[in-house]
Each structure stands twice: as C-alpha cells, then as structure tokens.
Amino acid sequence: MNQLRIFVTIIIVLAFISSCDNTQDTVQNESEPEKAEYAIIIHGGAGYTPSDIPEEEKQRLYKILEDAIAIGEEILKSGGSSMDAVEKTIAFMENEPTFNAGKGAVFTHEEKNELDASFMDGESMKAGAVGGVMTIKNPIKAARAVMDKSVHVMLTQRGAEEFAVEQGLEMVEPSYFFTQGNWDNLQNILEEEKKQQGSLLDRFPDSKFGTVGCAALDKDGNLAAGTSTGGMTNKRWNRIGDSPIIGAGTYADNSTCAVSCTGHGEFFIRYAVAHDLSARMKYGNMSLKDAADQIIMEELKAIEGAGGLVAVDKYGNFAFPYNTTSMYRAYAKPGEKKVAIWND
Predict the structure, then answer these.
(1) Residue 21 located in a structural domain
(2) How far lies 73's CA from each of 263, 316, 342, in Å?
(3) What band does 202 get if pLDDT is binned at 50, 70 and 90?
(4) 22 in a domain, yes or no?
(5) Residue percentage of the chain with pLDDT more than 70
(6) Kind and range of the H or E run holding 229
(7) DSSP assignment of 49-95
C-alpha cells in the first residue's frame, strides 16, 4: 500500500513539473517578438542637403534609392544571403556618382581619391576592410574578399590593391573616380585656404557626407552590414575615417543587430558607435531604436558629432536616427517599404 502511494505521488509530481515547463515555454513563446522574413536598410549619407532643391532633383535622388533597395530586397526575397544583398546593393551605390563612395568619391588635399570600405558577417563575426585604395572600382567587393579570402581584417593602400588584383576584382585607373562637382568643391576650398593661410578642415565640413551603407537580415536569420566611402573632402596625410573600421562604422552580430554609420568619422571612431549600439542591446537589454536614438540624438549630438546610422535587428526592426537635417535612406521588408531624405 505504501509503495502504491509513493508511486502515485511520483506521478503527480512529474505531471506538475511537466505542466510548469509547458507553461514556461508558452510564456517564452508569447514574449518572443515576431521575426520578419527578411529586412534590408540602406543609407547614402547624412548631412545638410537643403529640402528646397528642385523637384526634378528630388525625384532623381528618390529613384536612385529605390533602385538600390530593390537590388538587395530581390536577393533576400528569393532566399539569398544577407551578405550578397549588402555587397550588391552597396556596389550599385558605389557606381552612382551621386554618393561619396566609389565613382563619386571626393578629393583629398593632394587632389586624389582615396576610398575606404568594410564588411561584416553577423553569423561568423568575420570581417574585412580596405583603406586608402585608389584603383579598386568597388571597394566593398574588396572588403568582402579580405573577409572571405584572407586571414586578415584590414588591408590598406598598395597592399590592398595588390590583393584585389590577385582576387580578380575589377581595377580602374585613378581618373575613373573624377567628377567635376567634387573637383570644383576641392578647388574652392583650396583657394579659401590660401586666403585664410590655414587648414579649413574643421570649419568647412562637407554639406552631405555621402558615405553609403547597408544592413540586412536574411531568411536564415543571418545579419550582415557594409559601409563604403570616399572620406572627407580635403582630407590630408592619408586620413582614414570610421567607415573601414569594424566597430566604429560597421558592425554585425546575429544576436543583436547589423549597423552602418555615416557622418563625421572621428567622432564615430572615438565612441565606437557601431559596436556600442550592439553592446547596449546585448548587455543593457535596450531595444534597437532606443539604443540608436540615445547614441545619435543625445550623446553624439551633445558633443556636435554630426551624423547618423542605419540598423536592423535580429527580428527585422529598423532604426535610422540622424542629428543632421537630412539622411539619404531606404528600407524594405515584407509589407513595408520606404524611401526618404528629410523628415518625410
């Protein structure tokens, strides 16, 4: 009789434990946010583009952003990887002279074009970057190649170009990057410097930083991010900004988010903005939007760190804060698509 009571008691206890486990699983499942099938967000630079530009020019800019986001979205929609979506989207923007990246790169003080780019995979946490290159047509492709085909993270200048040649990437003459508008802008600054007898780097920031970037989430739940830029007009001494620096201008971690930054690079380097966003989510349990807003709209704004970022978290939520008057941007996921430049 005692043995029967013990047996019945054990059965009741086991049933109770199983019930508790099922309840806990139900609560966890209910609290887990719904994940988007895929998501992608891009930027074409934060800055101070006036909103009263001609309507025809506005529509041209919107169209470029629409075409760029469509490339990445089509890849993701068809089951492609977030890495392919990021690379091909940014390559398209590098080929568009409207942006300060690739073909549209600005000129240095020495009247050259020095380009930077970075790439990161949120699944493996591998990353690649190139800095100060002058003959690689699409620096973003070189950054991914560094990640995929070398044991290094960052290559610069001649070494990066030699590596790109070995990988069969498309190379161009430095003259390929010449655009009249950027040339004229540099000449105006150089003339003003002669009158002022000193550098104007700290007093004549670019009106539109123009860096391009992309962050994406694919159907497998993998995040990736990339950034590409021509740097700062009139930069000297082979200056490199945040764009090719992992953790400053680019970061991706499947457990949190993928992010690409744009703005005054020195501030983004000092405050490790891209990684900081991920860290606030991981260790501070902050949402993507709250963390991004706090960094860009409060902390950087307080120290005049002009710029912004675009990011997507592991659920497909977006963040795109900017403390300037404009930021070229677009995002897309199933049932949602937006292209904007100002607070529109």
Answers:
(1) no
(2) 25, 13, 22
(3) low
(4) no
(5) 87
(6) strand 223-229
(7) --TTS-HHHHHHHHHHHHHHHHHHHHHHHTT--HHHHHHHHHHHHHT
In degrees and rounded to multiples of 5, residue 294 shows phi and psi of -60, -45
Regarding pTM above 0.85, the answer is yes
The amino acid present at 148, given as its one-letter code, is D
Q: Length of the chain, please? A: 344
Active site residue 233: no
> Looking at residues 217-221, what average pLDDT do you find?
98
Instruction: Tell me if 207 sits within 8 A of 47, measured CB to CB.
Output: yes
The catalytic position among 89, 98, 211, 324 is 211
pLDDT interval class at 128 (50, 70, 90): very high
Report the CATH number that the domain containing residue 332 is assigned in CATH: 3.60.20.30
- Look at the chain and report how many structural domains it folds into: 1
Cβ(73)–Cβ(215) below 8 Å: no
Domain range enclosing 322: 39-340
Question: Which residues have a Cβ under 8 Å from the Cβ of 100 and sit 6 or more positions away?
Answer: 45, 106, 182, 206, 208, 209, 210, 211, 212, 229, 230, 231
Q: Is residue 78 part of a domain?
A: yes
The Cα–Cα gap between 133 and 126 comes to 21
